[in-house]
Amino acid sequence: MIVPNWLPPVNPIQPAATLLHDLVDTRLDVRFDWAKQWLLGTATVTVRPHFYPQTQLVLDAKGFDVKSVKLVTGGKEKTLNFQHDKRRLAITLDRAYARTEPYQVRIQYVAKPNELPTGGSAAIRASKGLYFINPLGTEKNKPRQLWTQGETEGSSCWFPTIDRPNQRMTQEISLTVEGQFKTLSNGLLVTSKKNNDGTRTDTWKQSLAHAPYLAMMAVGDFAVVNDSWHGKAVDYYVEPQNAADARPLFGRTPQMLEFFSKKLGMEFPWEKYSQVVVRDYISGAMENTSATVHGTEMTLKTRRQLLDGNSDDVIAHELIHQWFGDLVTAESWSNLPLNEAFANYGEYLWNEFKYGRDAADLWSQKQAALYFEEAQSKREPLVRYRYADKEDMFDRHSYQKGGQVLHMLRNYVGDDAFFTALNRYLTQHKFSAVELAELRMVFEEVTGEDLMWFFDQWFLQRGHPTVAVAHSYADGKVTLRVVQKQDTLYQPVYRLPVTVTTWVNDKPTDHRLVVTKASQTFQLPVSQKPGLVQFDSDKTLLAELTEEKSQDELVYQFYHARNFLSKTQAIAELKPKVADLGVSSMMRNALNDPFWGVRAAAAEGLRRYRGPEGGAVRKDLERVASTDKDSRVRAVTIATLAAFQNEDFSKVFSQALNDSSYLVMGAAITALTKSPTVAAQSRIEALRTEKNPLIVGALSTYFTLNGTIDHYQWYLTQLDDADAATLYQLLQDFGTYMLRIPAVERDKALKKMEQMARTNPHYEVRLGAYHGLRTLSANMPALKTTLADIRSKEKDERLIGIYNLLQ
């Protein structure tokens, strides 16, 4: 057995940036050369020495042509000498300036973002700061847009600044654009002036200081849907054809503003709040101060798509960032979880408030699963002062694990202390940069307890506990044995405060325990043998947990569970035991649970069921697939029915092709893939013009087995129109589909796939195209040379690693 080594290579220490100067204010006057994809700018930057006198000012200015640098004093300008290496602009000042002497420099420059390397991370796929979308207007069905992405250090790709998270500045940005375009930036629109050449200059002023990476611009033909909260503008910028969908999508934002303001005890601090949806965005969304940018793929949904679930999670995530990240900012990327863990947990808090504890716990279950998946190959401290690249911090540790750790902290200290501490943290540190110790000290001030043990093991140590629990009953006592099984060479033995609940005569008794050893035994007094002993009955512990429970105990747990996670744990662990009448009865009852997540878990748990009441179970599943009020349950149940071999549910599947839900329709198409009826075939063919990603993805899978040469053009069209996530699957399906058509017909598609594998800006699209070509290489050996060349020229480390595994 190979024991994984969770210790990464020793990376350099990454401290917070040394403060030689403090940014004070930035004023920009910018216009754009769309054909060249350049920004033509004048920046007036106000700074002051942080403490020591300075004779030189160094600004980040990536990829610029710097035309001039001048000192501005009393309205007069004085030319300054400078050196610029395309990364940093070193300005020689006319004298030494003390910390009491703020001064201004004015820089004329041209920003050329496309001359910069792509860069980026899994979370933020590029780092060139400024992006022109369809700049010449030559791409059909795509608008001309321009937008920025500052995190991590992309702002200095479009204006000169000290591009570090521990800086803060006020700002004013004047954008000169073509008359038909709308603009958006941080703060308030203070003037809008029409120019004689048909352009317009909009000036946006951010009067409250924030970090440079949070500065933003967006330009495009947007419809602006207006809302408000407490007298502040709340606006939604979308493409005109999506105007009717903006309020159903974003309309809960004022309620979120109210909720977070009350929950945190601090009113939303900025002058307005806008959200804009843009094309080809390189991330999911970004919490620019007072002006969040959303990508179409993650956030945009039509009214019909909203039937399958809304975008509240990402909207809430970016909104709570306005407090955690924008108002109080991590001083270094090492401390990124101080931004992202809170944004992740903001999703939980909103779900809990708006949709109930069950919905929040379902969200939490998915987040924990994402972290555990990453932890199979990577285990790092949450706050890590050693990393190879700052982009490495944008992972499931900083986001998903971070949110789960905050949930444990809340559970440990209690709601009153938790939210009192958050208010104190925000109040004490607003408009400043912080590190982890400051969060810890606030919680210690509130609770009166030294919490170094909690912050050390969860924020500063790697990994998570792997816990095995067993219990027995004798002589009026439950003996509980708890073993921490994680490899303690790389991970700590954890201190784990947990609640253990015993049920006697259907009455629960909670026992508060603290596990502190690798192997520990506890004695719990009970009046008789309990029907159930449940470790971590609150279901807040981030751990890989196994408990020895009988089938009867698991069934008992389902019926007596106090939370969603306890119910679904019982369903999941009973899946292999569905030959028992009590279990099948429990599963059937779960199909009628008030919460849709339990019903969906039960439907999934009955996949390929072969136990007693088989006929009744199938009828229940058919009923749920056709009539459940939640489309997500209907879709899961259709997939469950499709897994039964040699059984005909085509009537249910065909009926589902007419469902109002895209999710259900997609599940039905997939279910019919292996054996479509004649009637279903014609109905599916009629869906070829659908653009919804769920339908396109399902049709792509369907045509791999049922397509003819007539569907070749359909695939080619989708390669031009589909989003990146859909293309990843579609390109692989296309490779399989082309095995079924004559080789002489494949040339056009092969050229297109090769081009996408080499040059598409989305790494997942390049990977999908590579997979598709690799499938075809099985009977087209010449493609192996092409694949080798693609591998040799790929620069993305993620893809290089995957390609090496595939060889």
UniProtKB/TrEMBL annotation:
<dbReference type="GO" id="GO:0005737">
    <property type="term" value="C:cytoplasm"/>
</dbReference>
<keyword id="KW-0645">Protease</keyword>
<dbReference type="GO" id="GO:0008270">
    <property type="term" value="F:zinc ion binding"/>
</dbReference>
<keyword id="KW-0862">Zinc</keyword>
<dbReference type="GO" id="GO:0043171">
    <property type="term" value="P:peptide catabolic process"/>
</dbReference>
<dbReference type="InterPro" id="IPR014782">
    <property type="entry name" value="Peptidase_M1_dom"/>
</dbReference>
<dbReference type="GO" id="GO:0005615">
    <property type="term" value="C:extracellular space"/>
</dbReference>
<keyword id="KW-0479">Metal-binding</keyword>
<protein>
    <recommendedName>
        <fullName>Aminopeptidase N</fullName>
        <ecNumber>3.4.11.2</ecNumber>
    </recommendedName>
</protein>
<dbReference type="GO" id="GO:0016020">
    <property type="term" value="C:membrane"/>
</dbReference>
<keyword id="KW-0031">Aminopeptidase</keyword>
<feature type="domain" description="Aminopeptidase N-like N-terminal">
    <location>
        <begin position="28"/>
        <end position="214"/>
    </location>
</feature>
<dbReference type="InterPro" id="IPR045357">
    <property type="entry name" value="Aminopeptidase_N-like_N"/>
</dbReference>
<dbReference type="GO" id="GO:0006508">
    <property type="term" value="P:proteolysis"/>
</dbReference>
<comment type="similarity">
    <text>Belongs to the peptidase M1 family.</text>
</comment>
<dbReference type="Pfam" id="PF01433">
    <property type="entry name" value="Peptidase_M1"/>
</dbReference>
<dbReference type="InterPro" id="IPR050344">
    <property type="entry name" value="Peptidase_M1_aminopeptidases"/>
</dbReference>
<dbReference type="InterPro" id="IPR027268">
    <property type="entry name" value="Peptidase_M4/M1_CTD_sf"/>
</dbReference>
<dbReference type="InterPro" id="IPR011989">
    <property type="entry name" value="ARM-like"/>
</dbReference>
<feature type="domain" description="Peptidase M1 membrane alanine aminopeptidase">
    <location>
        <begin position="253"/>
        <end position="458"/>
    </location>
</feature>
<dbReference type="InterPro" id="IPR016024">
    <property type="entry name" value="ARM-type_fold"/>
</dbReference>
<keyword id="KW-0482">Metalloprotease</keyword>
<dbReference type="GO" id="GO:0016285">
    <property type="term" value="F:alanyl aminopeptidase activity"/>
</dbReference>
<dbReference type="GO" id="GO:0070006">
    <property type="term" value="F:metalloaminopeptidase activity"/>
</dbReference>
<dbReference type="Pfam" id="PF17900">
    <property type="entry name" value="Peptidase_M1_N"/>
</dbReference>
<keyword id="KW-0378">Hydrolase</keyword>
<dbReference type="GO" id="GO:0042277">
    <property type="term" value="F:peptide binding"/>
</dbReference>
<dbReference type="InterPro" id="IPR042097">
    <property type="entry name" value="Aminopeptidase_N-like_N_sf"/>
</dbReference>
<dbReference type="InterPro" id="IPR001930">
    <property type="entry name" value="Peptidase_M1"/>
</dbReference>
